[in-house]
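User: Hey, my collaborator sent me this sequence without any context and asked if I could get a structure. I don't really work with proteins. Can you help?
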Amino acid sequence: MIFVFGSINIDLVVTAPRLPLAGETLRGTSFFTSPGGKGANQAVAAARLGAAVAIVGAVGDDDFGARLVASLADAGVDTSGIGIDPAAPTGVACIVVAATGENVIVTAGGANHRVGRGELHRLDERLPDASVLLVQLEIPVDVVAAAIRRAHARGVTVVLDPAPVTEVPDAVLTDVDWITPNVVETEALTGIAPLTETDARRAAGVLRDRGVEHVAITLGAEGCYYAGAEGSFRVDAPSVAVVDTVAAGDAFNGALAASLDAGADVTTALERAVAAGALATTKPGAQPSMPTGAEVDALIARRA
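Assistant: No problem. I've predicted the 3D structure and written it out in structure-token form, which is a compact way to encode the shape of the chain:
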């Protein structure tokens, strides 16, 4: 079973012809709300692919929180680990999506920023059932580090999506099995922008030297670059019609966790993760864009 320890947000999304400049008021073309948060998105992504998934996190005692818990349950995610925080609002992400599919996001963490001992206790109670722990950095980093240590001590495979990027101590990375930074996060963590395969190899080597066994650098439309116990190679992304790139990385991480939970080999896991990430860009919104297992299978078959 996959346990996601992470953020739960409501996304407030405005579409626009392009991204605004600093200080500019830009006329948008549409507005909608959607369930989001990196943790919740990744939980839904894995559940849509058929994995058994539980999430541990927090929402506020408000309408947004109730809506998000119900949405996760509807997607097949075990929500018994979600706490209701009466002292903070549910987290919010304000997103602008350009016609090209590019986006900018600003978050107000709310209850996510207060995740702590209570959530760690709920995670501890369920870790004996876990095969994979999937974490991100939209909740306090020290709490994420504690969750990683506890999972590693129990032999649970730990997947870290280091977003939003912040410095992660080596003592934490040595307990991480997989790390999945994008290009910006890779440069922040290693000082190397992985814009060529040579640079991606160098950057992955830095992260491996810091203790991570498997490094999967996500490259957007270029797929991903892997370095680890199975050697090093790139997995190309399939060509799709991009509508909205929001949560493509979450689809990648959820699919990777689902494949690892199912016992897939590294190559298969990455091929499915890249396909899921590509499919997520073909629909608007975060959780609504997470693909099903049948959709991933069909896209991979189309490429064969």
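In plain terms: The chain has one domain: 2-8+37-90+110-303. You can pass these tokens on to your collaborator as they are.
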